């Protein structure tokens, strides 16, 4: 065992990120300035610690004017918060109105749409919520004077995504025309949101040589690049990362096996062929999904399961958070740890944006 | 740096001469150390006699003293810690809503020291029940235990006829802690051992300073009933030092001991006939029950599921970057 090894972590470029944890708090961390001595610090904290309000899903809408963050809590409450100062814009007590209680059917996915659905001039927000039993609602809400008072769209779009099984992950692609849903016992489905129809379902890989069939269990998924809704990557409980291409075939095009614990988080890189995967024992790695080659692992004392990963849209950094209550920032190319912030609480989600000069959205999706 | 007129031993290539130089060097150091110690003692004695202040005592440098500061050390005023504590899996037991009921079982092969260890554990932990393992899957055992309202499950794993790992699973969805056991001394092997009674023991948990340590400490606390019976004078200690948790089980008794006031040697004056006696209350300990050391290998978030589970803390060799860094 070495006596002491101290690796000087190089300085971290300035950015701002938001995280949500199991006590329902939303925290903002920032690194300002270019000096390498600056470490990331928690600058703001919104909400009171209350475990019944733990955050289950979040979605960030990053735009130059009025960036927003939507959080879905365990009690079924959905809140839309302004990213800059934490003001509550909208607070929806229970989205589903057909009597299922949020305890039996918790929300697993949330998405705030960029485009307005209705043509009204007042501020309106369109949300997509997805619950474990597969009911997906797309509804618009209009803002009015107080956050608790809102006008609901009279005809929300509802989809039922799965018959049996639980939905564990959902993702809407950049242009917001298509969405995918997957989970335990549910193969990956791609739906067209304009027409509200299912356009594609995956097929599981064939039985292996011993005739063993592994049950379907997807834990996280993401679209591969902005322009192409046809390719996406999904991670499974059996430590496999699969690439699917809608235009090619229903079975996975490429599969990569990674260590031994379930893949809990997946994030795509901007170049369209690298993905970052995090698993249940804290290993973070980058994989080239075209060839299936593991490019390298991010080593750096991460001892707890990684719940979610986010990639900065401009700077070459990614952030990961997880059950060891640390938020870590890594450099993509050198795979080195740049900075780590201790949170003292299990982190569930991270989304980030940068205010100051550049407005960038650093979005991470929840890996429940 | 003073100029070394003695040769540095490592530059001498001849082994005999080199070892001779080393022996001389060591002897020199020993002599110097003894001289320094004598000077210090003389100083102290003189200061005592003259009634002056003692010269400041030097603190030895230990690895615990020089421990690397960890971000996750719990501070006493952290409200998130308290909120987290209320929310975690043990809070209902620790608030005495439920009394702990423990199920102890073993791995499939259990021989030699295993059964003796189990009987010792049954005597230490109140309200513990032992069931033979049979050929049940551990996940099924977790289900059965949940149905029968147990609050924790302890599995003693035996390797090479010696218990070497302990799995503590909190129920219903509690975390699973995997400990490595070592240095096991059974109740019958202790010299002058006492016999444990059935009073509820007091629990002493020391030095669990970080967040992870705090969580493990609460998990251990949830194994024992929260109403100690002080009259029973029985104490169970889990002491954490350098990531090793030492388990001891004692019976104690408070006694008053008379000690004559210390007179300096040689004074045998007649006034000294009325020797003042000062009473001191001391606690005498008698060890009973097993003695072992645990080290945390991994802490998993749900119940036992090595393949599909997510770990809160798992030890990785890349984390051992420094000898002064500890996690619990």
UniProtKB/TrEMBL annotation, chain A:
GO terms for biological process: ribosomal large subunit biogenesis. InterPro entries: WD40/YVTN_repeat-like_dom_sf, WD40_repeat_CS, WD40_repeat_dom_sf, WD40_rpt, WDR74/Nsa1. CDD domains: WDR74 (cd22857). Gene3D superfamilies: YVTN repeat-like/Quinoprotein amine dehydrogenase. GO terms for cellular component: nucleolus; preribosome, large subunit precursor. Transmembrane segments: none annotated. Keywords: Repeat, WD repeat. Pfam families: WD40 (PF00400). WD repeats lie at residues 303-340. This is WD repeat-containing 74. It comes from Olea europaea subsp. europaea.
UniProtKB/TrEMBL annotation, chain B:
Residues 100-305 form the Brix domain. GO terms for biological process: maturation of 5.8S rRNA; maturation of LSU-rRNA. InterPro entries: Brix, IMP4/RPF1. One of its GO terms (molecular function) is rRNA primary transcript binding. Residues 258-279 are annotated as: Disordered. SMART domains: Brix. It comes from the Eukaryota. One of its GO terms (cellular component) is nucleolus. PANTHER family: RIBOSOME PRODUCTION FACTOR 1, U3 SMALL NUCLEOLAR RIBONUCLEOPROTEIN PROTEIN IMP4. This is Ribosome production factor 1. It comes from Olea europaea subsp. europaea.
């Amino acid at each position: 065992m070495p006596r002491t090894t101290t690796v000087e972590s190089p300085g971290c470029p300035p950015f701002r990120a938001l995280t949500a944890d199991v006590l329902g708090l939303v925290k903002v961390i920032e690194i300002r300035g270019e000096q390498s001595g600056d470490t990331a610090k928690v600058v703001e904290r919104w909400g009171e610690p209350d475990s019944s309000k733990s955050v289950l899903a979040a979605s960030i809408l990053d735009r130059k004017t009025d960036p927003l963050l939507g959080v879905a809590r365990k009690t079924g409450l959905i809140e839309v918060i302004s990213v800059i100062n934490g003001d509550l814009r909208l607070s929806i007590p229970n989205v589903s109105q057909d009597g299922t209680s949020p305890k039996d059917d918790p929300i697993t996915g949330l998405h705030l749409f960029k485009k307005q659905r209705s043509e009204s001039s007042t501020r309106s927000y369109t949300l997509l919520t997805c619950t474990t039993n597969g009911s997906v609602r797309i509804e618009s809400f209009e803002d009015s004077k107080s956050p608790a008072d809102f006008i609901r769209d009279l005809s929300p779009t509802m989809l039922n995504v799965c018959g049996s099984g639980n939905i564990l992950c959902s993702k809407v692609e950049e242009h917001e025309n298509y969405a995918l849903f997957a989970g335990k016992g549910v193969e990956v489905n791609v739906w067209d949101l304009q027409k509200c129809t299912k356009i594609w379902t995956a097929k599981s890989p064939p039985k292996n040589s011993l005739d063993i069939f592994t049950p379907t269990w997807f834990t996280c998924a993401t679209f591969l690049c902005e322009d192409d809704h046809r390719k996406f990557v999904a991670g499974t409980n059996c430590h496999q990362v699969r690439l699917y291409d809608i235009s090619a075939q229903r079975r996975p095009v490429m599969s990569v096996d990674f260590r031994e614990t379930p893949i809990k988080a997946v994030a795509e890189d901007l170049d369209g062929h690298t993905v970052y995967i995090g698993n249940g024992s804290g290993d973070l790695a980058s994989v080239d999904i075209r060839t299936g080659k593991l490019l390298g692992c991010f080593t750096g004392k991460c001892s707890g399961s990684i719940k979610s990963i986010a990639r900065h849209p401009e700077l070459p950094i990614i952030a990961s958070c997880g059950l060891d209550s640390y938020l870590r920032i890594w450099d993509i190319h050198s795979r080195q740890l740049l900075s780590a912030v201790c949170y003292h609480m299990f982190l569930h989600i991270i989304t980030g944006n940068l205010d100051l000069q550049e407005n960038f959205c650093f979005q991470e999706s929840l890996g429940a | 740096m003073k100029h070394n007129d003695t040769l540095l031993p490592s530059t001498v290539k001849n082994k005999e001469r080199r070892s001779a130089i080393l022996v001389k060097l060591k002897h020199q150091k020993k002599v110097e150390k003894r001289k320094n110690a004598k000077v210090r003692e003389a100083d102290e004695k003189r200061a005592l006699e003259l009634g002056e202040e003692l010269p400041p005592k030097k603190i030895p440098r230990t690895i615990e003293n020089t421990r690397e500061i960890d971000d996750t050390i719990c501070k006493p005023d952290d409200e998130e810690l308290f909120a987290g504590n209320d929310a975690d899996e043990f809070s209902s037991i620790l608030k005495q809503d439920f009394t702990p009921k423990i199920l102890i079982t073993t791995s499939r092969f259990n021989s030699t020291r295993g059964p003796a260890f189990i009987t010792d554990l049954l005597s230490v932990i109140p309200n513990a029940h032992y069931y033979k393992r049979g050929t049940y899957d551990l996940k099924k055992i977790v289900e059965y235990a949940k149905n029968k309202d147990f609050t924790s499950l302890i599995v003693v794993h035996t390797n090479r006829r010696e218990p070497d790992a302990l799995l503590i699973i909190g129920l219903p969805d509690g975390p699973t802690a995997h400990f490595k056991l070592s240095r096991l001394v059974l109740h019958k092997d202790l010299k002058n051992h006492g016999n444990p009674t059935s009073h509820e023991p007091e629990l002493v948990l020391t030095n669990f300073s970080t967040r992870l340590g705090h969580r493990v400490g609460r998990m251990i606390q949830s194994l024992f009933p929260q109403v100690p019976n002080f009259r029973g004078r029985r104490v169970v200690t889990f002491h954490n030092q350098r990531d090793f948790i030492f388990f001891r089980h004692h019976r104690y008794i408070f006694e008053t001991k008379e000690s004559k006031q210390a007179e300096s040697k040689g004074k045998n004056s007649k006034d000294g006939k009325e020797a003042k006696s000062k009473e001191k209350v001391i606690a005498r300990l008698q060890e009973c029950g097993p003695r072992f050391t645990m080290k945390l290998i991994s802490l998993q978030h749900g119940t036992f599921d090595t393949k599909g589970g997510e770990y809160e803390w798992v030890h990785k060799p890349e984390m051992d970057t420094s000898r002064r860094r500890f996690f619990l």
